[in-house]
């Protein structure tokens, strides 16, 4: 089975702190994604990556950056956390386009910024 | 812009009964794929069922089936013989190329 592991299930940070969310997948997937999930808004794409060291902005990249130094690892960085970044963050990976684009998700990281 | 709409924020169903969750989408793409994902409470999101837009036949996975109406851009999910374990958030999603667009979700409660 595909396993996508997110480093932290719950985090509490203070405004202005730097936050790292890490994600690792074990199926050699090409594509990795970071989503933000908020009630009533569904999942919104922050950043995605199709290959090592490549990244593309999603729908809501402001205030976030990402890093993909190795194929299996995709990190989301909040340079200076703000209260409006309190949310559930979901990492996902996929093999490729079409039906191969089925997403496999991690359990999520719930971030609270005080 | 591509959009996915789920008009039912919450639904409930009696155990063993059938429930249908609605989803509509808007796209000008000719090649796309549709998915229903399930997110149980405090657990990771998993795929329920998927449909290729070029296929007219509705997808079925055990107790889960879809009603795909391409002209109407409608993709509803039917859950038969509902079980307590079906209680979850359900997200409809459309895949264009390598980009997913998700709906806002429907929270399904299953009553014993």
Describe the structure.
The complex is a heterodimer of chains A (114) and B (112). Chain A is mostly beta strands and 114 residues long. Helix content of chain A is 0%, strand content 52%. Chain A contains no helices and eleven strands. In chain A, strands 2, 4, 5, 6, 9, 10 and 11 form a seven-stranded mixed β-sheet that branches. In chain A, β4 (31-38) and β5 (42-49) form a beta hairpin. Chain A is globular and about 40 Å long. Chain A starts with a strand and ends with a strand. The model of chain A has no long low-confidence stretch (mean pLDDT 92). With 112 residues, chain B is mainly β. Chain B has strands at residues 3-5, 10-14, 19-21, 24-26, 33-39, 46-52, 60-61, 64-69, 74-79, 88-96, 99-102, 106-111. The termini of chain B are far apart. The A-B interface holds A 4, 31, 33, 35, 40-45, 48, 50, 90, 94, 96-99, 101-103, 105-108 and B 4, 6, 9, 33, 35, 37, 43-47, 50, 52, 91, 93, 95, 97-100, 102-105.
């Amino acid at each position: 089975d595909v396993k996508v592991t997110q480093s932290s299930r719950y985090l509490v940070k203070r405004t202005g702190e730097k936050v790292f969310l890490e994600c690792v997948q074990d199926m050699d997937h090409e594509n990795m994604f970071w989503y933000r999930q908020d009630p009533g808004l569904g999942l919104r794409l922050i950043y995605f990556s199709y290959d090592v060291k490549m990244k593309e902005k999603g729908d809501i990249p402001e205030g976030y950056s990402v890093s993909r130094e190795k194929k299996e690892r995709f990190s989301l960085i909040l340079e200076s956390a703000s209260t409006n970044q309190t949310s559930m963050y979901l990492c996902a990976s996929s093999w490729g386009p079409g039906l191969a684009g089925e997403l496999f998700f991690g359990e999520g990281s719930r971030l609270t910024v005080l | 812009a591509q959009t996915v709409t789920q008009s039912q924020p919450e639904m409930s169903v009696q155990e063993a009964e059938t429930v249908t969750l609605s989803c509509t989408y808007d796209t000008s793409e000719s090649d796309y794929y549709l998915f229903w994902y399930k997110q149980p409470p405090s657990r990771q999101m998993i795929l329920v069922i998927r449909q290729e837009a070029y296929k007219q036949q509705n997808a079925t996975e055990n107790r889960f089936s879809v009603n795909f109406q391409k002209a109407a851009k409608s993709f509803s999910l039917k859950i038969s013989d509902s079980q307590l374990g079906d209680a979850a958030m359900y997200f409809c999603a459309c895949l264009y190329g390598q980009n997913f667009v998700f709906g806002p979700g429907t929270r399904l409660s299953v009553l014993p």
